[in-house]
Amino acid sequence: xxxxxxxxxxxxxxxxxxxxxxxxxxxxxxxxxxxxxxxxxxxxxxxxxxxxxxxxxxxxxxxxxxxxxxxxxxxxxxxxxxxxxxxxxxxxxx
Length: 94
Description:
Layout: E1 3-5, E2 11-13, H1 38-55, H2 62-74, H3 81-93
Antiparallel strand pairs: 1-2
């Protein structure tokens, strides 16, 4: 899966490389009896993230995605680890 950054600074996955989420499971018949398992919690979080990505597809810069894919394929992508770390911190502080 590849990602791109929009003009607003948000990262989005390239929809062409996304795999659809698995179908949602039906709620157990004894819904109040036992807490959700870690796998169920993770699955729910992944489904919510996928839906968020699907909702925000209009902000994907497909030209930039193609440029990044080409640079990755050619091995010419240069990464400044300090800049990347700073950008990641800033992204998650928002």
